[in-house]
Amino acid sequence: MAVERIYLARHGQSESNRERRLCGQQDPALSEVGLRQSHQLARVLADVPLAAVFSSTLRRTVQTAAPTAAAHGVTVTALPGLAELSLGMLEGRFRDERDPEAQALWQQRKADPARFRPPGGETFDELAARALAALDHVLGSAPAGAALIVGHRETNRALLKGLLGWSTERVLKEKLRNHFVYEIDVAARTVLRTVSLREEDAGAVYDGFRT
Question: Which of 6, 13, 67, 131 has the highest CB neighbour number within 10 Å of its CB?
Fold first, then answer.
């Protein structure tokens, strides 16, 4: 295994996030806030000796990863297996009273997030299978040292499941936002530190896992 440490981040705010729409595998760009968050990620990780940077093929992760990759003199390697959970017919829709059909489907998903399949979409277990295959590729092909992965909320849950040995039930309870980066020791299967990207404590390091 070449990679010794993984830094796991979620992409910055996308235009769909800003509009409070369900995104899934749609491909919006980062919003202005998201672009600022991408540069904050680069600043916080400036002194980390990253040997590789990975993202999904969706623009919001590539754009988030790009400033950090440039600062470390590497290119972003985009892996299709890291794409967000496919939400099928829910993609691009509101999940509140503005769209009662989508709201009802979203409530079904909340009741059983591991096994729910939206029409035309995929289950979390299906996402996890492809995300963990992508993780195996990262661990086996990246140069020795540390690597950054910029993923999505559900993708990152699957990656935590693989990296830490957590159960599906546990990872689906964690609220993964984009104001923390998780530093994970691959060999020890332990979260060593949580690094803040928030303006008020940017770069602060906390022991253990925070959300």
Answer: 131
